[in-house]
Design a protein that fits this description.
single chain, 250 residues, alpha/beta, Helicase, Ruva Protein, domain 3, Rossmann fold, 13 helices, 7 strands, elongated, AAA_ATPase_RarA/MGS1/WRNIP1, enzyme activator activity
Amino acid sequence: MADLFDENLKMDAPLADRMRPDDFAGFIGQEHILAPGKILRKAIEADKLFSMILWGPPGSGKTTLARLIANKTRAHFQPFSAVTAGIADVRKFLDAAVERKKFRQQKTILFVDEIHHFNKTQQDAFLPAVEDGTIILIGATTENPSFEVNAPLLSRSRVFHLRELKEVDILRLLKRAIKDKENGFGKLKISYDDKALAHIAKLCEGDARDAYNAVELAVSTYLPAGKATRKKQGKIHIDLKTAEEAIQKK
């Protein structure tokens, strides 16, 4: 019963979250920084990480990459939202990181999503801990870090620019989600018109999350209320009209 409960909780998560890969084999796009032999990939694989800023448009894989790092590293990985956290939260976290390093000899990786929402005082609070190696800071932002991240913090971080995903990348992600029996819709009888998925891939403008949401909406319209999406239902077909309704022009 517990396994079934856990499975249902997992499938209640948005498709975009369920489809995040655990390794590089499942990561699509961003070959310019993650192809075999690239410095960032080698650092992740060797667990020799350094402070960095992941800069890229929405849905380009910043959070997905951070979660992949969390899956690979032996360090304590702590996600942190710059939207909801305040300076008191920052200090509490830093105190815990100091204790962790002192008594467990364990490094701490701090992933700050939307780091551009932190003001100068909040960003400055991280600086001593970054300088002395108490934390490894990974910040994610859609804004140019040259303008949104304090110069001292930026100078101690490596900036990696994630590019907008190509339509062919989005198509690969969507087709995989439709076929994936564990995390996607592979247990459903889904067919689709190529033009339908191509339409979604085009209108999402490189935003994988947007594309996943559109397919999830298209599929959900066929499912009875209250039914888990993994439970076998009737045939589902995603045609161009459905795709057009599922995703709107930005």
